[in-house]
Amino acid sequence: MTGALSARSFSLWVAVAACVFGAVSLGLNYFDAVRVFPAATALAAGLLVPTLFFGYALARRVRPVRPPPGPPSVACVVWGMTAATGCAVIANTGLGAVWARTRGVEFADDWSAALTAPWNEETLKLCGVVMLTFAAARAVRGPVDGWVYGALVGLGFQATENLMYALNNILLQGATSPGGSVVGSFVVRVLLTGWGSHWAMTAVAGTGIGFLVARDGTPAARRVGLAVAFWVLAMAMHWQFNAPILGFPGGIVVKVALNLVVALLVFRAVRRRYRARLREVAREEAAYDTVRPSEAATLLGRRSRVRARRIARTPGVRARIADVQERQLDLLDARTPAADPDEPSLSAELRAEVAAARARL
Amino acid sequence: MAQPRTADRRGRRAPWWGPPAVLAVMALLVAGWPFLASRLSDDRELPDGAVLRVGPGDGDHAWFTLGGGWTMAESETTPSQEYVLTRGSTELSVAYLGLMSSDYADRLWDGLRRSVRVSSSDARLGPPTPVLSANGARGSIGGLTQGDERGTAAVYPAPDGSFAIRMIALAPSDTDTDTTDLTDADADHAAALAVIRSLSFAGPAP
User: Fold this and answer.
1) For the whole prediction, is pTM greater than 0.90?
2) Cβ B75–A96 below 8 Å, yes or no?
3) Cα separation of A256 and A250, whole Å?
4) What is the mean pLDDT of residues B50-67?
5) Across the strands, what pairs with B125?
6) Please, which residues have CB within 8 angstroms of residue A244's CB and are 6 or more apart in sequence?
7) Nearest residue, CB atoms, A171 vs list B34, B110, B115
């Protein structure tokens, strides 16, 4: 146990160090622009915050059955905002220079974005989901968790990148209207392209990490293959978004829609798989009286759980019913990996907790 | 009182090699690409009389003409956006600026005064004077000092006001950068001033 805790603590400190490094990189690159345009920066930040909160709430709400825990969710956003973005600034500059110096400036002007950002940014963002599996092993049990946490990493990346682009836009428009440049950038990057941007790409890539770490009996080679495949798919989504293709009016809408559709199709598939597994486990748990058939009918829906609690008249009893429900869901979640070697002993402990919670009703 | 939950306490052991492996991947990208770029030559010599186009697309661009001795910094140049050129001790940047409205053309010099302070907090832009390029482009030009460099800045709004071209030439502070008398300017800076005065919105000179 001490060794396991130490390894997780080490993972946490490594993640913190990466986030600090990324934040320093961003500061060094953008401090001067912030210094010269403080009001426009404040406007950009003001537009960024509600976007961030909306995306955060939405990503956690779409996770089936119940939201992911808060601390790993926030950690993913922070990784995206700092470690991934700050490192991407350096990596993209380097690889962009390689393209310009080897293929010429005309080629780099057209293709550098498509050949640089997918490779660097998808890898750096995905590192955040991978670090999460080391620092909080129970957070990512399968592909649906990978999708949600990947979306949160991508959201954080998108938020910081929006701020960077807003500041860049001020200079690209000659600082003739800093506030207007910020608003214009926001309209394009949030209202127009935000629907199929970084959150969608990393949600897809994160799904692969979910498959990789899921203890469901799938052979390791297949799990690795799935992880690589989803990473490549995410890079392909990013490539088509940045590539000089679909240049007709409205082409950007097609690009955004394509990414959104891919992300949602992947989500639909993994959500269906996850909910089917939960229903299967709930039926099995009827034999232990931990999840009764009548409870299974209401346990997997947020609203149905609330309705089931409202049968009780007093807040105290409702809270104890909620406690039973949460421990039942802990048990079902713990058993979703069909071949977890920890499962027999862990399930026994969790069943005992459900029984104890029932006894307190 | 909430009872502690087993689900919060139990967890899979993280492999010891995991975090270092992630760091190695990140380091490969962050350090590897810049290292590889540093091994490649960045300077491309440009021919005497080269006519370069700056700007993103049809109708949204301008041309300028170089004399001899110029090299282009390839990693800093994006033809649709900005050229960074060097001749001896003088660096010349030529940038495309998109304008949200033609009314904003009047704000270009004030915007430039703020923009140059992003590169250097002590940058100071002098008052503008009208300039007419050899190809009929009308703009504003003035002196610029920043750090231990001094030079010349110019902005030319496009005839329809939809964009502008910003040109900045900087050289070490002991360079003679008098914009009113080309013959007295240092040769490199004089060449830069000639490029600034070559700007055309109407296409390359025949």
Assistant:
1) yes
2) yes
3) 10
4) 92
5) B144
6) A110, A111, A114
7) B115
